Amino acid sequence: MSASRTARERVRAELIREITEIARRHLTVDGAAGLSLRAVAREMGMVSSAIYRYFPSRDDLLTTLIVDGYNALGEAVEKADAACARDDYMGRWLAVCHVVRGWALAHPHEYALLYGSPVPGYRAPEDTIAPATRGVAVYGRILADAIAAERLAPPAILPEPPATITPDADTVRTLIPGASDDVITRAVTAWTGLFGMVSFEVFGQFTNTINHRAEFFEHTMTCLARLLGLPS
Question: pTM to 2 decimals?
């Protein structure tokens, strides 16, 4: 019975893998809003009712695609950071930035699912939270490590943040222990700056404007590192 159950589990896992692979291809044509379980079932040669055994609704399939996407990006970020020396804070930051851009350009439709327009009628469940924070956690560790080593020195060019943001800063501080409100605001600015640059490139906002995009990206991420106070 155990061997039979294991065989069934392998078959089920393989079918789920095939369904999600086909669904990713459909994202490139129909987008997330147009994703259809029936269309995926037709391509697999399954009756539409059979696919509901694996994904009871379109939202369940979307959640799996989102979780897979966040995990793939998070794993890429973790590997990029791990390849750098622990005390090379600038190098770690730039490695993370470049791998986010590289992953997004290689997987534009999956990136759009994660960071593009919300899918009408879909609400992401809590299952997506942990995968979504994998990359952010790496970023937080880079800054926390620099703070602990007393190597973070933000330039005094910004106004002090208002006290009213401290509760929000406290939430972010769980990922960057020891960071002041000033460092937190700079960190959020830099992180959103990274994804803003990537989104503009992925979604075509730089067309006919920024042609040397790799060089522009490198320079901008270095400027954000200076804003954070990361050592060269």
Answer: 0.91
